[in-house]
């Protein structure tokens, strides 16, 4: 399975700048790149040749095409172009979305479309946030809170130009929307590429733990809400699991949660032990009605001593989310 990074972010947050910087970094060599518009790539500096009307071949062994025909089609087109060029398979994929795009449909495709889930594995969602206009975006752009809520990594851009008080308010807002996401600052696209890698559950060792980093001050369990229109509030909850779960019990719980949470569940992710092989945990991932097949990890990530599940929902009563996670924790290890 080829790791795939989803790059999203607020309008004007600097995705194009970061994208072009990443394409020059050796860490993203031999990368399949899917962009919202082909013009987002700095072709004057990066273009080597055009393999056809829809695919660009870039310096560093990267191939690039547009998202306009759908993600599965784009990944398939890039894979064929790579094979036809007589080159080895891609080492990874990087998908850039429009600043006005809701990222949930792409996440659903990655989980539910067999043309994708047999070929690629989500390595992380990276969301760029404008350090100056981020608060206004959260207030005025309907998709901005969703983009922040589903991120594994939040990158604050233009933070060197923002005033300290405004940046502090933005940080608090982001913590309310997504307390478990790591946060970094980038200036003019200057961000070590390796910080964008290994955000997913299958990364080995220390990096896998980044997928479920607990927010500061909430080591055991927590909940937050971020109000954007009352009933449309985004709420998050997290719980630690003291022991292993029966596989059938976990499967039933996930099915029930999909029924209760449904379209309200923006994202659920967890790393936990199962009773059939507690030394090798599994990573679970769900978006709305779709649950990805659990991924078996070879060992526990460094820094993660026990299981943890985090859920982010919109328009779902927080108490319902807490009860669902609390029930699961009570079943872990027969507690």
From TrEMBL:
Q: Which InterPro entries match?
A: CobW-likC_sf (IPR036627), CobW-like_C (IPR011629), CobW/HypB/UreG_nucleotide-bd (IPR003495), P-loop_NTPase (IPR027417), Zinc-reg_GTPase_activator (IPR051316)
Name the catalysed reactions: GTP + H2O = GDP + phosphate + H(+)
SMART domains per the UniProt record, alphabetical:
CobW_C
- Cellular component GO terms held in the UniProt record: cytoplasm
- Give GO MF terms, alphabetically: hydrolase activity; nucleotide binding
Could you list the residue ranges that cross the membrane? Answer: none
Give the keywords, sorted: Chaperone, Hydrolase, Nucleotide-binding
The CobW C-terminal domain sits at 234-329
| Family annotation (Pfam families) | cobW, CobW_C
Disordered: region residues: 207-227
PANTHER family to which the protein is assigned, alphabetical: COBW DOMAIN-CONTAINING PROTEIN (PTHR13748:SF62), COBW-RELATED (PTHR13748)
**What family name appears in the similarity comment?**
Belongs to the SIMIBI class G3E GTPase family. ZNG1 subfamily.
Q: What does this protein do?
A: Zinc chaperone that directly transfers zinc cofactor to target proteins, thereby activating them. Zinc is transferred from the CXCC motif in the GTPase domain to the zinc binding site in target proteins in a process requiring GTP hydrolysis.
* Protein name per Swiss-Prot or TrEMBL: GTPase, G3E family
User: Which organism encodes this protein?
Assistant: Tistlia consotensis USBA 355
